[in-house]
Every structure is written in C-alpha cells, then in structure tokens.
Amino acid sequence: MTGTESGRFAPKVPVQLDPPKDDLIPVEELAKCNGTDPNRPTYVAIKGIIFDVSRNSAYGREGQYHVFAGKDASRALACSSLKAEECRPEWYDLGENEKKVLEEWFTFFSKRYNIVGKVKDATNY
Question: Region labeled Disordered — which residues (predicted)?
C-alpha cells in the first residue's frame, strides 16, 4: 500500500489508539458485546481481530451498522452488505475485488478503533 492509499483511510480527526491486545475472546462473549447492553462494550470483528467500536453510536442498538456488532462481519463488509446472514467470518472464497474491499475496511477500522483481542479459535486471520 502506498502512502497515499493509507492516508485516504486516515480519520479526519486524529485518534489516539491503545497498543493492540491479543486476548482470546470466545465467540459467545463477542456475541454479548453487540451494543444492546450498556454495561458491555460494543465489538466488531474483522478477519478474527476484534475492534472496540463502543464510542461510535452507529454500531449501537439503534445504529445503522448495528448488524455488525457482536460478530465477525468480514463477509458482509467485503461484500458491502448490511444483511444479517452475510455477517459471518468466512471470506476466503470471495473474489479479489471483495478481498480488497475487506482489506480496506480492516485498514479503516485499525486507524479508528482499539484492537481488544482475537476471536478464540478463529481460522480467518
């Protein structure tokens, strides 16, 4: 990726991120972090990596991207889909264009949200 490409994903307002964590979080725990419980963070996983999106209301209960919350939404993001059935971790069988889109989403998230861990037993890194 060239400097220009990575720059295009930079947030308009700089974000101070914590060092990435590599805690293993079971998929059952990830599912509980779906933006509906105010006592829990809101997480979205991409390619098995879990991002804390709690401070963005778009992933909360009433948010336009709530469908991604509490799951590995790799396939849906790669396919630019908001369908719940597309919010799943499998993405290896997608075409090169979709894989590029997924990589762009991963870059976008990694510049905005803290990485809090990995999905335990994930095979889609």
Answer: 1-20
Q: Where are the domains of the chain?
A: 3-119
- Can you spell out the DSSP letters for 98-119? HHHHHHHHHHHHHTTSEEEEEE
Tokens of 2: 């060239």
For 66-98, the pLDDT digits (tens) are 999 999 999 999 999 999 999 999 999 999 999
| Domain 3-119 belongs in CATH node 2.30.290.10 | no
- 24-25 vs 49-52, strand pairing mode: unpaired
H-helix segments, 1-125: 3-8, 27-32, 74-78, 96-110
Q: In whole angstroms, what is the distance from residue 27 CA to residue 29 CA? A: 5
Number of other residues whose CB lies within 10 A of the CB of residue 55: 12
Which region holds residue 18: left if phi is over 0, alpha if psi is between -120 and 50, else beta?
Answer: beta
pTM: 0.91
